Amino acid sequence: MRQISFCEALNEAMFQEMERDPSVFVYGIGVPDHKKIFGSTARLSERFGEQRCFDTPLCEEAMTGFGLGAAINGLRPIHIHIRMDFLLLAMNQLVNMVSNFVYSTNGTLKAPLVIRVVVGRGWGQGYQHSKSLHSYFAHIPGLKVVVPTTPKDAKGLLASAIRDNNPVVFIEHRWLYWAVGEVPEEPFTIPIGEANIIKEGSDLTVVAVSWMNIEALKAAEILAKRGVHIEVIDPRTLSPLDDTLIIQSVKKTGHCLVADNDWVDCGFGAEVAARVSEKCFGHLKSPVKRIGFAFTPCPTVRVLENEFYPNAVTIIRSIEKTLGLSPTDISDEDFYSHENRFQGPF
Amino acid sequence: MATKTSPELELNLALYRKLYLIRKSEQKIIEYYPENEMKTPMHMSMGQEAIAVGVCAALGDRGQIFSSYRSHAAFLARTGNVEMFFMEMYGRGGTLTGGKAGSMHLASPSEGVLCSSAIVGSAIPLAAGAAFANRYKKNDLLACVFFGDGALEEGIFWETLNAASAMKLPVLLVCEDNGFAVHTSKQARHGFRSITEIVRHYQCHVFQEDTTDAEKIYQLTRQAVTAMQRDPRPVFLHLQCYRYLEHVGINEDFDANYRPREDYENWLKRDAVALGRKKLLESGLAEADISREERKLDEEIDRCVQKAKNAPFPQKQELYHGVFHETN
To answer: CB of B242 within 8 Å of any CB in chain A?
Structure first.
């Protein structure tokens, strides 16, 4: 099958959905400019015109309310934020207005608003260009929260989000933009609210979010060489969370590690840990473990930033402890270095 | 009905019916509120009715209304749906909202009220988005949002004013300036002399009036719509009014010492409902004709109150219903 990048998959989903449905439009700060949100909005203003693909003043809150107003009046807006940190300016609209509208009509009316948000990392992004915060949104009833990892999921889930009649916060890790994978050319959807086993295994379950799936797959590859087979589950949708696959997997393996791309404290990992202990209590051979960002603001300098983020090695060391294994020799392993690939500036 | 009718009299009678309906509905709330069955914070429109009535009449069926928590007047002016109004006050099932909205969130999108919000200013950008959708779909609907003078201090007002002006969105931004944000006067809150002077510097249309005459507000709104259609840009409509009752609740609060009773008495001399009635009499409509109209509305209000009081509450399991829209 044809291979394209995560970024191209996002672009193709929007392009095809805009072709399919004239009520879909896309907007946000920098959306039609020459940088095209890292390329993800390429071709849209050229193909669909400025009425359906446009820039906005710097007013995240007003433009979120604007999206809701358009959504409840018959359109399907896609609002893009180039950094999660900027979406915080719109929390009032998101949490007081957007999330409540459908419930205020007892579920009878629609609010089809997609909010695409990019999570930054590396090259000195620092504490205001790197936040993930998906658990903020997953805490709010009335918002769907989608966090794709693979290019295929990016396309299928974004198409689903655009066709959904409810608000969807769609969170994209910047480093995934280069990930390449098989993606069907024709339009297709992947249902929101379904997890995916991205690697089967029998010894330990890793529930990984966004970029941490890439790290978990690398950890799985290294551990497999010594006969340890971990199962990696990508929940893909954090709210509404379907924990069926997670529960089935932990019942099989007896061990669970949540590898989050966010701070651990009061985060998504706590939700998974609670559900696993409630539903798999008698099957657990060890306590659920969680890894994620250091509980500090994200530092700018590389040497500290490398300490801030968990990675494949963090996952391996955690699993070794849980399973009582000696440390794996990783001196010959070749780890990802997006830092070396990514030469900035953003 | 009146022996001599004219378009002007018809208009004033229609405006008066709405003024009377809103005033009497709220008086009915005051009458029944002590029974403690209406468990929803009442931000009463009393004293401010002329603005909603004049504006909504001018927009007619094309109007798409967004409002604040003080939304009784706007809701009734646009929809006339007294039955739903009292079902919401009493929190009964069977309405669009299924008891999930109440006094601060009155809405009936199919009847032209799209959303009412209790966070000051937060419905303003929704109206801009709705106006965008109307332009996008090339329909002739008119998005309009009501907000108080407190909203002028919120960033969302300025954000939306700027964006709507830059994007040339045909949206009506209607400020119901009653001079107070809860109990704080605008003199204490506003670091500017004149809001209209500032807003005039934006690329929008500005209209202002200090009147309790719903007909004047109707005419002004029609002018505003004409201007907006000739030169598509937002309209800022700044209108003075006075809140008769406390910020939230059914009582007056002139003994709280933040505003003098004399202000109220002065405004009462130009009371919108009394003025509307006086104008009908001056137009030649007989007292008996007016009274007959009033009795019809009284009966409708009574019927709706009783219907709401006797209606069932939502079923407990409906708590979880409607968080998401489930159909495609």
So the answer is: no
